[in-house]
Amino acid sequence: MKNLRFEVVKEAFQKRPIAVNIPKERPAEIFGKYVFTRKKMYKYLPKGTFEQMIDVMDNGARFDRSIADVVAKGMKQWAEENGVTHYTHWFQPLTEGTAEKHDAFIEFDSDGGMIEDFSGKLLVQQEPDASSFPSGGIRNTFEARGYSAWDPTSPVFIIDDTLCIPTIFISYTGEALDYKAPLLRSLKAVNKAAKDVCQYFYPDVKKVQTNLGWEQEYFLVDLDLYNARPDLMLTGRTLIGHGSAKNQQMDDHYFGIIPERVQNYMKELEIEALKLGIPCKTRHNEVAPGQFELAPIFEECNLAVDHNMVLMSLMKRIAHKHSFEVLLHEKPFAGINGSGKHNNWSLSTDTGVLLHSSGKGPKDNLRFVVFIVETLMGVYKHNGLLKASVMSATNDHRLGANEAPPAIISSFLGKQLSDLLNHIENANNEALFDVKDKKEFRLDIAEIPELFIDNTDRNRTSAFAFTGNRFELRAVGSEANCASALIVLNTAVAEALTQFKQRVDALVERGEDLNAALIEVLREDIKTCKPIHFEGNGYSNEWEEEALRRGLDCERSTPLCIDSYLTENSVKMFESMNVMTKNELIARNEVKWETYIKKVQIEARVMADLALNHIIPVATIYQTKLAKNVKSMLKIFGREEGEVLTSRNLKILREIAERTQLIETGVDELYEAKKAANAIKCIRERAIAYHDTIIPKMEEIRYHIDELEMKVNDEIWTLPKYRELLFIR
Ligand code: ADP
Ligand code: MG
């Protein structure tokens, strides 16, 4: 019998690198080639319109519909010069991918002929049928219609023959059905709150911008091997598979030499990403074999989120050209590292970075400390919610499973910053204020500048680490839309800053000096948010006990974590910051539970299919072979001697028989558990049942399958093994 697996593996290992067309131009020249950048706006739009657009993009001015036709005309002209025939409103529904429906520019003219047209109306707003997108009941209770509306702060871009227009996606009644709408609202909230606090120190500051630099981890698998694994194809991860004898234990992959096939893939990906305005900067091998990372230079948060979404789909498209499949799943392989997407987050003003001290004296130092502490306050008060924002059926396997980072949100600050906070908390006012002139604040810590530029003592086990001029949120999953976490982080920080200002102002109103008031409230907050500050090993068991004592959220189950969205604390935060209403939150939670259920449901089906149609039949073939051998041995040597001589085969024969039996009953029980879970009316309870009963059952089945993989003759095993999937030649 021919073994397909052998053929596929042989083919995969013989593949040669696919050549890449390296453009003649330097990277800086191709950067943004397919983006309607400011420079192009200047060229294709009348001067007045251009200026209005800049005002909209930079200062958040309202987009005046009267210029829509002019803008659309300029865009269309540029697009046509690049061979574009179609346009689409490009949006980010709650499915975690992006959505687009392409329309051609063509319209009938009055004589029944055809013209190409693109009006301002079509640019600004459309009405895609929302009924097939998850809406968590908003659709049922209100209206089926959804609107996509242009987000002029993110530039339009071209993919292939299509002009892509970034849009928000909202219901007829204005509820957000996507990630972008609440993200934009959260950015507005941070801008307002941070600007107000900033003005205590620098009254001229007009705007605070949120920045995001994501680091995208991913796995590559040969496309033919991928196609031979139904579990990878349908669920994005391997549901079964015994670990490879060699995996990441030698630490020889991390930062190692990138295989040529992969290098060519990366080159082409970067070239195409640069053309789309994504400032790719870093590429390297990651810890696990077959695992890599791409990181761009950080950008304004909304744009960076869009770029990450564009990049993820670009990665897939280009991978196919190189005969790879990209795995963005957080945990494609058991027993080795999973993939995350570190979110480097910072705030900056029109004049400088906020989470960094310029060292320009006490005032700037105090400003720096205030922003650090209020960020911690936001994260502390909403640590459970922040975790919920990154939890998913897929990230579950990474966060809940003793892997970086743990399922507890805490913040690492480094020794110097920790000492500084302690100093402020404990020093008496004489030490903080100049004695002669009580009014002058004296945070005379000359070390600040050098210290934070060179902050190298990183703690890799922390979920939210300060790294010199930014915080790095490491819990985000590789597959996730960064917006989910950033909506929470931004809103929490906005709330903390708003409350900080309210309390400072109240003290000033009562006659207290401003600097004294700032210090007083700051001190209070340093004390309050202490539980979130942790410098130790986030993976240790002691930390979990300690975190529980500190009152931090230690829940590991995704369906339960999601409850955090609906606590009074969260609803109050979202509503007071005008980011989401209670209705929207309820609806989105429905979507989250539903998505969770569906993902696990698909996995359970694939698992049952693999067990019954691949594993048991193959194991049975080998079992029959062994049985025949034993039978003939007994015949030749007689029962007594024969049993001794075939003891090994007898043992394996028994093991195969027992394990296939256990797998079979396991699958039956899996069906039963699924049936019982599906009968539960409440979607939250149903998700909990899927988490508590289906997943453990799948793990049990997997255990026996993986044991069988080590017993059954390699020659007849049909599914590519870990050692074949993980190493790219
Ligand atoms: P590491 O893996 O050591 O954390 P990388 O160089 O892979 O570092 O990624 C760092 C990321 O942080 C990059 O995307 C970078 O642009 C981003 N970054 C650097 N400074 C800031 C900042 N002030 N705000 C936000 N992101 C930043
Ligand atoms: Mg990093």
In short:
With 729 residues, the protein is an alpha+beta fold.
Fold blueprint:
Blueprint: H1 4-14, H2 27-30, H3 38-44, H4 47-59, H5 68-81, E1 86-90, E2 103-104, E3 106-108, E4 114-116, H6 120-124, E5 125-126, H7 138-141, E6 146-150, E7 157-159, E8 162-171, H8 180-201, E9 208-222, H9 223-227, H10 230-235, H11 260-275, E10 280-285, E11 291-296, E12 299-300, H12 301-321, E13 324-327, E14 341-349, H13 362-381, H14 383-390, H15 396-399, E15 411-412, H16 415-426, H17 429-432, H18 448-453, E16 464-466, E17 471-473, H19 482-509, H20 514-528, H21 541-549, H22 558-561, H23 568-576, H24 582-645, H25 647-678, H26 683-711, H27 722-725
Parallel strand pairs: 1-8, 15-16
Antiparallel strand pairs: 1-2, 3-4, 5-6, 6-8, 7-8, 9-11, 9-12, 9-13, 9-14, 10-11, 14-17, 16-17
The chain binds adenosine-5'-diphosphate and magnesium ion.
Residues 211, 213, 215, 282, 295-298, 342, 344, 346, 353, 469-470 line the site of adenosine-5'-diphosphate.
Instruction: Determine the number of helices (DSSP H or I, runs of at least 4 residues).
Output: 27
Helix proportion: 40-55%
End-to-end distance, in Å? Answer: 27 Å
Strand composition percent: 5-15%
CATH structural architecture of the largest domain: 2-Layer Sandwich
Question: Which hetero ligands occur in this complex?
Answer: adenosine-5'-diphosphate, magnesium ion
What is the number of strand segments? Answer: 17
Mean pLDDT: 90
